[in-house]
Amino acid sequence: MAVTSESTTVWTGTLADGSGTTKLDSSGVAEFPVNWRARSEGEAGTTNPEELLGAAHSSCYSMALAHALTGAGHAPESIQTTAAVTFEAGRGVLGSHLLVSARVPGLTEAEFETFAEDAKANCPISKALAGIPITIEAELA
Predict the structure, then answer these.
(1) Where is this region: Disordered (predicted)?
(2) Could you list the residue range(s) of the whole structural domain that residue 11 is in?
(3) Is the dihedral of CA 72, 108, 81, 83 positive or negative?
């Protein structure tokens, strides 16, 4: 069964001077302010597309890793994933770096790294980001 998720952004003004809001329509759980300054320089209290992309990547990756580990008989106690998405004005999104720490009883570091790399390659958001480099640092907690 396919599920479609929707978000809406309403923007007012020019790129440099304008601003907008991005709303998570499907869930209705949040609405975020967005503007160019937050994207190009960083601004507290205002998000940007790369931060939202990082949220999608880190959550999808964590689910993919949990699924792979559980399917192989190694149910994780916890997985923490940070996705650092880099953007440069004029060049675009340059990459996503995954920083992963997990508690998985009975697994060696080498075994875990194999699962971590497999999840990176097979996570649906990683596949959608095939046009950018995706790097990973993964360790057992």
Answers:
(1) 1-26
(2) 7-40
(3) negative
